[in-house]
Amino acid sequence: MEYDIMSKKEFEKMYFFGRLRGLHGNGSEAGHSG
């Protein structure tokens, strides 16, 4: 099984951004941090 680190990083990034998008989709209450 070959697993590239870049793939993992990219997957984590997409997941992270996906969560942020979901949270912000409900409303810009949290705002932009960091």
UniProtKB/TrEMBL annotation:
<protein>
    <submittedName>
        <fullName>Uncharacterized protein</fullName>
    </submittedName>
</protein>
